[in-house]
Amino acid sequence: MKPGWPGSLRSRLFLILLAGLLGSQALSFAVMLLERDQSARAVMLTTLQRDVAVAVALLDRLPARERPDWLALLERPTYRFEIGRGAPGTPALPARGQMIADEIRAALAPRFPVRFDAVPEPPGRLQAHVVLADGQDLTIDVRPAARAVASWLPVALGVQLLGLAACVWLAVRLAVRPLTRFAEAADRLEPGRPATRVAEAGPDEVARAAKAFNALQARIARHLDERVRILAAISHDLQTPITRMRLRVETGVEGAEQDRLLADLDAIQALVREGIAYARSVHGDVEPPARLDLRAFVESLVFDYQDTGRDVTVSDLPEATIATRPQALRRILTNLIDNALRYAGRAEVAVRVAGGRIVLAVLDRGPGIPEDKLEAVLLPFVRLEESRNRDTGGTGLGLAIAEQLAGAIGGRLALRNRAGGGLEATVTLG
Which CDD domains match (predicted)? Predict the structure, then answer.
């Protein structure tokens, strides 16, 4: 983006259209002033020619002693008559002065020869010198002046510009609003959450784009649902042969080989259970929401771990009530606590209320996660062999299930490494 150029499309369109309209308005105003000046000049020259011919003929017929009394009556805003030779000047006339001189010469010729001088001040002033029949000098002092602009004209132009700006703003707003709605709908599009349909209304192009976007959301939802159902079906169907294999191994010859086979079957069965749990987590919104005493809920969960000898503590537990899906929230916290216990040996649960939102945090002092892998570990079946040993167990689905369920209950799961080592997993609700 260029410096000084607004970043939003709305601002850019507004400035471009407003600049174009202002330029057109300025050009129209300049053309109007030019035409007005030319019309006024044509009227002035025509009037000047006629009035000067009448005035000079009148003064020529009057007795010399009566002429001064008529000068004031013959005076006009742009010229007046003087008895005498007038002010000194130069014979070189500007273009506009030459035009006025031609009109006066045409009005008085051939009866009265005329001589013209340009007077420096004010600019454009000129004098026509005439000798009357009795030999008396008469000077026509011409002072061209631009016609004053009416006092109401700037106000009218200002109101017109405000109207143009308002129309441009409204047009840009109507044009950009569908893009804003599409962007908001795209931001809300997440697996496990019901898709928000965009209103298929407005101009034909906008309605067509909205229909296409809604169809895209439906195709994505069907594609995801199909893949999840396949995973659930495979995981479910694997349980029966695994059970038969376990029975056969357990009834076989005891020894080290049997122990290894049973351990492999346990790992496969755990993977199948997690696969089913992940498939169900995508549809976590099927559980009806309920009001929950968060303090009692977290304490109960922590006490269950402590009763089994696990090192799980709780801190920063304020009184709070929230409407959520209890089983989904319990599964989220259970997965995060189990993850902390697996890799750090102990876990700490904290609850914070800030800005109308509730943040549940599970903290540990384990090896943490590389910064460039904090997002990747939320994907299914992703394991980090460098920081988390495969021998400690785990299927790579715990965090993925927690992330899916957090989205299904209207929250968000985030991971970050703690200062001094360890991981902090936070679930933000509200």
Answer: HAMP
Strand ranges in 87-238 using DSSP code E only, listed in sequence order: 114-118, 126-131, 137-142
- Domain presence at residue 156: no
Burial class (CB in 10 A: 0-12, 13-18, 19+), 136: middle
Phi, psi of 52 (to 5 degrees): -65, -40
Give the count of domains, the chain.
Answer: 2
Residues 73 and 136: beta-carbon distance below 8 Å:
no
For residue 222, is it within any domain? no
CATH of the domain at 106: 3.30.450
Segments of 2-132 assigned E as strands: 79-83, 114-118, 126-131
pLDDT digits (tens, 9 = 90+) for 375-420: 888 877 677 654 444 444 456 677 888 888 888 788 889 999 998 8
Q: Is residue 84 part of a domain?
A: yes
Is residue 175 situated within a structural domain?
no
**Structure token pair of residue 284:** 């976590």
Rounded to two decimals, what is the model's pTM?
Answer: 0.48
**Alpha carbon of 33 to those of 26, 36, 37, 360: distances in Å?**
11, 5, 6, 71
Domain with 414, as residue range(s), is 285-429
- CATH of residue 336: 3.30.565.10
Task: State what percent of residues in the chain have pLDDT above 70.
Answer: 83
**Pairing assessment for the beta strands 290-293 and 321-324 based on DSSP bridges:** antiparallel
**Burial group, residue 253, by CB count within 10 angstroms (0-12, 13-18, 19+):** exposed
Q: In whole angstroms, what is the distance from residue 186 CA to residue 183 CA?
A: 5
Among residues 142, 165, 195, the one where a domain terminates is 142
Q: Are 111 and 131 in contact (CB under 8 A)?
A: no
Task: Tell me which of 142, 164, 182 is where a domain ends.
Answer: 142
Burial bucket for residue 260 (CB in 10 Å: 0-12, 13-18, 19+): exposed
pLDDT, tens digit (0-9, with 9 covering 90-100), for 352-373: 887 778 899 999 998 888 888 8
> Could you tell me if 206 and 181 are in contact, meaning their C-beta atoms sit under 8 angstroms apart?
no
Cα–Cα distance, 137 to 80 (Å, whole number): 14
Largest Cα separation within the chain, whole Å, is 154
